[in-house]
Write a structure and sequence with these properties.
This protein is mostly helical and 282 residues long. It has a single domain (4-271), classed as Formate dehydrogenase/DMSO reductase domain (Formate dehydrogenase/DMSO reductase fold, Up-down Bundle), CATH 1.20.1630. The chain is 74% helix and 0% strand. The protein contains ten helices and no strands. The chain has helices at residues 7-32, 36-64, 67-73, 81-104, 110-134, 146-168, 181-203, 213-216, 220-243, 248-271. α9 packs antiparallel against α10 (248-271). The longest helix is centred in the N-terminal third of the chain and has 29 residues, at 36-64. The radius of gyration is 19 Å and the shape is globular. The chain starts with 6 loop residues before the first helix and ends in an 11-residue tail after the last helix. The model has no long low-confidence stretch (mean pLDDT 90). Keywords: Membrane, Transmembrane, Transmembrane helix.
Amino acid sequence: MNGLHELPLVIFTVLAQSVVGAFLLFAIVLFTTEDKHYRAYVHKAMFVLLALLGIGFIASITHLGSPLRAFNALNRVGESMLSNEIATGALFFALAGIYWLFAILDKLPKAFGRFLLVCASAMGLIFMYMMNKVYHISTVPTWHTSFTTWGFYLTIILAGFTLGYGLLHSERPDAKVVSWVPTLVSITTLVAAIVIIYQGFALSTVVTSAQKATALVPDFATLSALRFVLLGLAIACLFYVLHKPASWMSKLCAVLLVFAAEMIGRTLFYGLHMTVGMAVGA
């Protein structure tokens, strides 16, 4: 499959977007419920998000080749979108980690905790904005489109909210606060399908003297269909969990199916890389 050579970036972008989406859902729940025991459960589950984000950053470092390159990239914060992405990602990780640590230790005053939660959520959204902007390169016509933006932001909901739902939904009465997630994921999947159909038609119009965009991913339609089959199965698992909250296997299957689906979609995205003209700056 064309695009597998960028597997570290596939893992990084999908995991980062998933974690930010899940963190936003966690924040909604924490602002909604006052049940002390459920809040403690939510804070414990938050460690999974931090661990996944850590794995994502490790994957991105393997792409750069050395941790020092990531630090060197920070020298151009404000000038380079890649530097901005790394900086905002690190800040999100730090803010989320600080919030989690103080919450677990029960050393977090309510007002300050809410402030920190809002700051971390806002930084997560800024991180996602910077990640999207990294790929809007004028010399890469297959990326410099609204389809890139749609794809990245939809993953935040599809994978992020599915991950959050899998971690948060339980037999506790307070867990009903996330009962709307399966419906949202279903609607988002429909939107994603419409976007992919339009993108498929748009790719046929991207042609240079050297290559055609459609030739880069000849299996675009087949793999996209597989992606949505996996998403459909994941949605079925989500609705099953809605009625059987104790079914941890269904939760795990839903999360793994969505991750697999979004990684297929992201691999197709990287496989579409093609250039025209000359890049100026970085």
